[in-house]
Amino acid sequence: MEKRLTALRVATVKTKGAYHDGGGLYLQVTTGAGGTPRKSWFFRFTPPAVHKERLMGLGSLEKFP
After folding, report:
1. What CA–CA distance (Å, rounded) separates 32 from 29?
2. How many domains in the chain?
């Protein structure tokens, strides 16, 4: 069973990277202006007709908590 992200983990993570939440959903942490962490969601999937991995940005953490 996959370990899901908790609300506490999402709120406190500051290290740059992509954090898997299960089912292809990821939290992406990057560095913004002044070195502050910026967080956004993206979805990783493979369309059956294309057979090539795709990434779809879903929006910022502030927009979709």
Report:
1. 9
2. 1
3-class DSSP assignment, residue 42: strand
Question: Beta partners for 52?
Answer: none
Any domain includes 65: no
- Tens of pLDDT along the chain (65 residues) come to 568 999 999 999 999 999 999 999 999 999 988 989 999 999 999 999 999 999 999 999 988 87
**Which structural domain, as residue segments, surrounds residue 20?**
7-60
